[in-house]
Amino acid sequence: MSTVRNLLLALALAAPAPAFAAAPPSDLKLERVVMLMRHGVRPPTKAQATPEGTTAQPWSSWTTPYGDLTEHGAEGARLMGVYNRTFLASRGLLPREGCAPAGEVVVWASGKSRAIKTAQAFTEGLQPGCGIAVAHPDSEDNDPVFHPLDSGETIDGAAALKAARRMKPGLAAETRLHAADFAILQKVLGCDRASKAGCGIARTPSSLKANPHEGPDIDGALAVASTAGQTVLLEYVEGKPMDQVGWGRASKADIQAMLRFHTVKFRYEARPAYVAERYAAPVAKRILAALNGEADTGRLTLLVGHDTNIAALGGFLDVHFTAADYPRDDPPPGGAMGFELLRDVGGRAFVRAFYAAQTMDQLRELQPLTVANPPAYAYFPIPGCGVNGDPTLCPLETFRKIVGAKLAAPAAR
Description:
The protein is of the alpha/beta class and 413 residues long. Helices cover 38% and strands 14% of the residues.
């Protein structure tokens, strides 16, 4: 019976979040959009992607500097911009031809080079030749919006660790539930029994480690698995030949299985309410300001950061999403969590949350994105919202109260 229960729990954790039709009712007019975008494809952030001895062979090489945006990643972001020009014009938000009036497109990026370059590529596709400025911090070490804990904001590390330990089902259960994913990972890394290599990681215990002034880190097998899965994904969406994707041992289905470790990592490191409601607060403030039409926001406001920002915002709002063909709650490279401001004929304003992203193969092959071949665009519900049986529609005033309450009084330790 315990095996059956574990299987059912695993299926529940892997199940996609509900997705809803991409076309809102015709009586709702789109007035504003704000998007929080993850940067595009990059190499690993360091030469040794995973610790020495965790793979049977060295990781593949990249020509782009570690952690920077690749040319392929920049083109993927540009293609998303090209598509959004047509898509948002069809909904009346941007002009079909020429440049949007000054101030109607506002772009802010993290201080990291990969985020700045992603914003520039997307914007050039969206408004080619229009000179849309990408605002960003002067230094990546002073980034209070996307890296608030590096810029003076602090979290009680002990309280954050306790909050992470309260998350369900817990690391020991995660390891058991993801036994099949570990088997796939070890095959790809060359560490399965058939290879007789002694680099298996599944037997390494996983634990949560406190940090003095920020959220906790996962140590052990689950941490290595998350990084390894992401690295193989990046090889795939970069368009590398398949014999260089996971050493030629990874199929697309294998990659999707390994990516589930990424969401496990975020569940404990970024999504606990105590952590998320502090880490995501600067981004949440900007999103709320954009939906309110405050100064320095536009009809389209684009915030370009990192997957950690999106994971933390997911925890802040307690939302779940499925982006394209990625696992539940996994933010794809170049994808975006977004919020539409809509108004009905009576003047009432509503917010709808969505996730937009290229599929793995659209990004791998740099496919042109068109009406016939669009990126994925799916709405998802925000807890505490819902109008007339539609869980994805949230009155603006309700959204303000939800976000405002968390900003004013974040979750206690």
